[in-house]
Write a structure and sequence with these properties.
The protein is α/β, with parallel strands linked by helices and 460 residues long. The chain folds into 2 domains: 307 residues, FAD/NAD(P)-binding domain, CATH 3.50.50.60; 144 residues, Succinate dehydrogenase/fumarate reductase flavoprotein, catalytic domain (Flavocytochrome C3, Chain A, domain 1, Alpha-Beta Complex), CATH 3.90.700.10. The protein contains 14 helices and 21 strands. The strands form 4 sheets. Strands 1, 2, 3, 7, 8, 9, 10, 20 and 21 form a 9-stranded mixed beta sheet that branches. A hairpin with a 4-residue loop joins strand 13 and strand 14. Helix 1 packs parallel to helix 14 and helix 3 crosses helix 4. It is elongated and about 70 Å long.
Length: 460
């Protein structure tokens, strides 16, 4: 059990900066620190840095980038910030939103120019809630490629990464200054490492069932699609040190994880004209609100399952994502020349499914808004061959966490900063507010990359 120990022991080694967690937040922080001339040691509990980043689509939203300009896209951090606040019902701190939206674009350009990460703009569809095309990804459009390239960049830059180093304790003095940590190794040995500054980049509490039941009860029994190591250590350590927390019920869910394959299916299959039905062949929600808020409604359906229905055109768009190609290779995406044949392949009640299918297509022809509030104006009809994938809802990661300022310093309830503690990514309170519906696509990697860079660059 991770804990905070109020003493300053003898340390076997000391470094200016310790980073707990080798996901996108931790690696970006270490790269930023290294560029500033600060020696950083990344502590990663796994044999190889992966984290929740590897399970994501690896897409980072940013505004005003050179890739947008090359595509003729007009966008700005202020417009991006307005989209975040609108999606999150005005709950996030406006200064925090401004900090991350102004930071993330230049950081992506720095990662590309200095460290060779070949980002490009997704130009063939727009994620829900974004008023401009601003999702940036690597060629495979996968989180695995993002984390692998960040790790390679960190190694090339001389960042020290210590794998299989599970942080089990923080040592702090009476002023709440963190003096160092204790790590446990797989062989049972332990080591104490001192530090001048500590960055918590170990995500949130999605892997801690009791905390999920307390803060996100609707998803407590659903699939957890994040890293099992996300046990809430950052929040628990921070609270023990007197830090403020906010929006602990905030989270990112996803209503489209292939079942039983456990492969993420891009929400493009919905946004480009597809729809979802339950195992009774009936729709149950406005699917265009967003994939995060879709998780709970999907889990509320019979057997906690739904089916995404789309066509070959949409599959072609989705195929740019490595996850979707994997799902096709695994046989998770059946297709048929007629809707009734598709229903038969999926074991859906044909009559009910056909009624749903025809109702959706009629809405498209008329440009209507349906009873769920979904507008089909300008949405193209589906055409054969028709495709589908059986999916479930999942919790990806939590969005609430430690309150930080514009330098990613962890704050107390009175607004003062803890002496040398920083947080990034899921360890910090994000910009999604307290509800799943507040999550704007990409908010997770947004705060990982932006707060990671801010924390790494911060002066002691």
């Amino acid at each position: 059990m991770s804990r905070v120990v109020r003493e300053v022991p003898e340390f076997e080694a000391e470094v200016p900066l310790l980073v707990v967690g080798g996901g996108a937040a931790g690696l970006v922080a270490a790269l930023a620190a290294r560029e500033a001339g600060v020696e950083a040691l990344v502590l990663e509990r796994d044999p190889v840095p992966r984290g929740s980043t590897a399970l994501s689509a690896g897409l980072v939203p940013a505004a005003g980038t050179r890739w947008q300009r090359a595509a003729g896209i007009e966008d700005s951090p202020a417009l991006f910030a307005a989209d975040i606040l609108k999606k999150a019902h005005g709950e996030p701190d406006a200064a925090a939103v401004a900090a991350v939206t102004e930071t993330v674009g230049p950081v992506l350009e720095w990662l590309a120019g200095r460290h060779g990460l070949p980002f490009s703009l997704i130009e063939d569809f727009r994620y829900p809630g974004h008023s401009a095309l601003r999702m940036h990804g690597l060629p495979s459009r996968s989180g695995e490629e993002l984390i692998d390239r960040l790790r390679a960049a960190a190694e090339a830059a001389g960042v020290d990464i210590l794998p299989e180093a599970h942080v089990v304790a923080l040592f702090a003095d009476a002023s709440d200054r963190v003096a160092g940590v204790e790590i446990a190794r797989p062989d049972g040995s332990r080591e104490r490492i001192g530090c001048g500054r500590l960055i918590l980049a170990c995500n949130g509490y999605g892997g801690h069932r009791d905390l999920v039941r307390r803060h996100v009860p609707d998803l407590a029994e659903g699939l957890y699609f994040g890293h099992p190591g996300n046990q809430g250590d950052a929040v628990l350590w921070g609270e023990a040190l007197g830090a403020a927390t906010r929006h602990l019920s905030g989270h990112q869910g996803h209503g489209s994880v292939a079942h039983p394959h456990g492969i993420l299916i891009t929400w493009a299959v919905i946004m480009e004209g597809g729809f979802q039905v339950n195992l009774e062949g009936r729709r149950f929600a406005d699917e265009t609100g967003g994939y995060s808020e879709a998780a709970a409604p999907v889990l509320a359906q019979p057997e906690g399952l739904a089916v995404c229905v789309f066509d070959a055109r949409i599959a072609g768009i989705a195929r740019q994502f490595e996850d979707f190609r994997r799902a096709e290779a695994a046989g998770a995406v059946p297709q048929a020349d007629t809707p009734d044949a598709l229903a038969g392949r999926l074991g859906l009640p044909v009559e009910a499914f056909m009624a749903t299918f025809e109702a959706v297509e009629a809405c498209k022809r008329r440009g209507d808004t349906d009873d769920f509030g979904r507008s089909f104006a300008g949405v193209p009809p589906l055409a054969p061959p028709y495709h589908a994938v059986r999916v479930t809802g999942a919790l990806f990661h939590t969005q609430g966490g430690l309150v930080v300022d514009g330098r990613a310093r962890v704050l107390r309830p009175d607004g003062s900063a803890l002496p040398n503690l920083y947080a990034a990514g899921g360890a910090a309170c994000g910009v999604s507010g307290s509800r799943a519906s507040g999550y704007l696509s990409g908010n997770g990697l947004l705060t990982a990359v932006a707060y990671g860079a801010l924390a790494g660059r911060a002066e002691p």
